[in-house]
Structures are given as C-alpha cells and as structure tokens.
Design a protein that fits this description.
Helix content: 40-55%
Strand content: 5-15%
Number of domains: 2
CATH architecture of the largest domain: 3-Layer(aba) Sandwich
Number of strands: 14
Structural class: alpha/beta
Order of helices and strands: HEHEHHEEHEHHEHEHEHEHHHEHEEEEHH
Number of helices: 16
Largest sheet: 8 strands, mixed
CATH superfamily of the largest domain: Response regulator
C-alpha cells in the first residue's frame, strides 16, 4: 500500500510539475509580441537610434506597470539599415515568431510600400505613424494600414498654410517660389502631389530638387537654390541629409528662417552639430516636440532607467525622436488594449483582433493624460474610413540650444486632402483589383 501511495504521489508531483511547465510555456507563448524594425547602423543611425530606444523603453515601461491588463509584452529588433529588401527580410523572419507578430512598424516609406502588398495576405496590421502611403488613410481600401497621427500630405498642407499665414494669406502666395529639397525615394516624393495641387490653386511655383541617398552630396542642389532664389525651402530629408542641408544653406547664405523641414527633419541630430548655423531653422512637429518634462518621460527615467534597464543614454529621454518612438510604441500597445475591450480583457490578441483595435482607437485627452502624454499630443480617433485619426501639427524652431514651438496648432485642410486620398485609393484599388469594404466588413 505504501509503495502504491508513493507511486501515486510521485506521479501527481510529476503531473503537477508538467502542468506548471505547460502553463509557463503557454504564458510565454501568449505574450503580446511586437517586432521592431530599426536601423542602428549606417547613414540614418543618428536618427534611427533614439527612435528605436524610445520604442524599446516604452515596451519595458508597459511591462513594469503590469503589461496590457496583465498580458506581458515581448519584442525583438531587426536591423534594416533603412533598406527595403532588408526590411522585407525582417518582416518574413519575425512575422511568425513568438506566437505571431501583433503589428509591424516599418519606419520607412519604401518598406511600407513593399509590406502593403504582403500584410493583407498575412493578416498583420501596419502602423506607419507620420509616414508611408498618404492614401492609406482610406481604410475602405487599405484595411491593414494605419498612418496614425499624420501623413506627408498632411505635413505638406500644414506647411503651406503656415507660410501663407506668414505672407498674409493664401492669396499672397501667388508668384512666390517654393523649393522642395527631397530625399530621392518614395518618402521624399510623397508630398509632391499635394504641393502641386496647392500650387495650381494659389499660383505659386514649386521647384523639385531630388537628393540622392544618403544625402551628403548637395552642393549642386544648393547652387540651384542660390541661382533661383526661392522664397522658401521645404526640406524632406532624413538622417545625415538634414544636417548637410542646413550646413549648405549656411554656406550659400540662404536664411534658415525661410527653411522648413518635415517632422523627420526636425530633431536634435539634424541641428546640434551645425552650431549657430542652424539657429532659426524651422521644422514641423508631428504633434509632439521635445518633451523631457512630460510624465511619460519621467516615468521611464524612474521605472526603466532607474532600474538600469534603459536602452540608451539618459539624456536622450524626452528628445524629439525618442518621443516619436514612445508615441509609436504607445499606439501599438493601445490598439491591443482597445481590442481587449471587445475580445476579452487581459487576453492575448491576435493580429486580426489588434487590427480592429487600431481601427477603433479612441485616445481621448483623459486617456492620453493617464498614459503620461498630457501636453505632448492631441487625441486620436480612428474609424473604418479614417485610419489616420488626426491631422494636426505645429512648427518648432531651433534657437541654437533647443527646440521651441513657434506656431499654434494647425489642421490640414480636409477639403483639399480628402478628394486626393479617395482618388489615389480608388486608383490603387483598381490596379490591385480590390473591392471597397462594406458596412459588414467594417464590423469585423
């Protein structure tokens, strides 16, 4: 009898141990997995690194606060070097790992174009906050794309409104000359259609000046600017291209006060090495600017850096691109939290369920304040037809030491953008033989 009891007890212990292992394995498999496409090497690393660090640190902060309603998050970086082919390789390698990728954030318009063709088949959403295809705002065609908080058409439109205000009104733009110095890639070409639309409406001239990757050779470009003497220069650059442009503007005598960068050309790495030569240079802020005093930045200093888990140096916390990384990671997490409201609080969300969360995102001011983003950004609210959720921006200016906001909030003109978005989305749908989503699809 004793032998039998001993055998039974041993079996029960073994079963219990097996159960614990299985439970732990299940819990581990059901962590919410977020692949991070980054570039910490190459010509774009000075801008890519703080963004990547912000993304990582936010994920660590979420776990430090208990996960997404108890569901821990996991992440893995994959180095793209800002190259489209490497970005696609990263996507293919990570999409099925750790129970399946929740969402991808390509951090490259070129990679976004490529993954837009793959994501629908794999049923994995893409967040392209402030970049990617401008027409992907139209959720009726682009079911899996989410250009949250802004597109390049929004950026270009706000810049036109801003310089028009400087001149005394849109009618005062007639006869003015605007030069677009742009990265010769899908990213740099995105604003062209909007600028040309606005130029036809208001009678200003747009000159297009492409710059070859990575952007260190711009002397010929700035010689043209010196000869043509535009009233304004819009800079659609990234990485080393931005600081090179500011240096060339200084060398050719073009006033930095007349230069306006897109929100990827308005961070500390773009100006800090130029010294006083960058003073007066302006750039769009994709809602946020530098925010070292924000609650979310302070939380990270305490909960992440304070525990020796920071991804980079402490002094980058709160810088512009670091905050962009935080904001982008927050979007990824909050879409899952929103999906849990429908599919089960405290449960792991599939990519398809997360997609519903991104399509029904409701980040009102109360939620943003609770997340630590008070004063950093405005509310975001998406829908089946609107995958962007907000179209606001403002301008900040470099004073030689830091960025300062120098404009009020401005909203892109939907009367200009909406017809362009629909026309471009319809064209894409026709080319790809896609049918617009109906009301029933919007509920799934």
């Amino acid at each position: 009898m004793k032998v039998r009891n001993l055998v039974l007890a041993t079996a029960m212990v073994a079963a219990a141990a097996s159960s614990v292992v299985t439970t732990n394995a299940f819990a581990q498999a059901k962590e919410q997995f977020f692949p991070l496409l980054v570039y910490r090497t190459g010509a774009y690393a000075p801008n890519g690194v703080p963004f990547a660090n912000g993304m990582q640190d936010y994920m660590k902060l979420v776990n430090a606060k208990g996960g997404i309603n108890g569901v821990k998050v996991s992440f893995e970086e994959c180095e793209t070097g800002y190259a489209t082919d490497r970005g696609v390789e990263c996507y293919e390698r990570l999409k099925g790992k750790n129970g399946g990728a929740t969402v991808f954030q390509p951090l490259s318009t070129g990679i976004t174009f490529a993954l837009t063709e793959k994501a629908p088949g794999d049923k994995i959403p893409l967040i392209t906050a402030g970049y990617g295809r401008s027409e992907s705002q139209d959720g009726g065609v682009f079911k899996w794309n989410f250009p949250l908080a802004g597109t390049y058409w929004v950026a270009a439109d706000v810049l036109i409104q801003h310089v028009a205000k400087k001149e005394g009104g849109l009618d005062k733009l007639k006869g003015k000359k605007i030069a677009l110095v742009y990265h010769d890639s899908p990213f740099g070409k995105e604003p062209i259609a909007l600028l040309q639309e606005r130029s036809r409406a208001h009678g200003f001239e747009v000159s297009l000046l492409p710059v070859t990757h990575p952007g260190v050779e711009q002397k010929a470009t700035w010689l043209q600017i010196r000869q043509n003497r535009p009233d304004y220069v819009f800079l659609w650059g990234w990485g080393v291209m931005n600081s090179t442009a500011v240096k060339e503007a200084q060398a050719t005598g073009f006033p930095r006060e007349k230069m306006y960068g897109v929100w990827w050309a308005g961070a500390e790495p773009d100006v800090k090495d130029v010294g006083d030569g960058a003073k007066g240079y302006n750039a769009l802020a994709m809602q946020h600017g530098a925010a070292p005093d924000s609650k979310v930045a302070q939380d990270i200093l305490k909960e992440v850096h304070g525990k020796g888990q920071g991804s980079g140096p402490k002094d980058e916390v709160g810088q512009v691109l670091y905050m962009r990384g935080l904001m982008s990671a927050m979007f990824a997490v909050e879409g899952v939290r929103r999906a849990q409201e429908r599919y089960g609080k405290g449960k792991w969300m599939s990519p398809e369920q997360a997609r519903w969360g991104y399509e029904n995102l409701t980040l009102d001011q109360k939620k943003l304040d609770a997340l630590g983003f008070a004063g950093v950004m405005r509310p975001i609210s998406t829908s089946c037809q609107d995958h962007m959720g907000a179209s606001w921006a403002r301008v900040h200016t470099w004073d030689g030491k830091k960025w300062n906001f120098t404009s009020d909030w401005m909203q892109a003109d939907e009367q200009i953008i909406k017809p362009m978005v629909k026309a471009a989305a319809d064209k894409y749908a026709a080319e790809k033989k896609l049918t617009r989503r109906d009301g029933a699809d919007c509920q799934t």
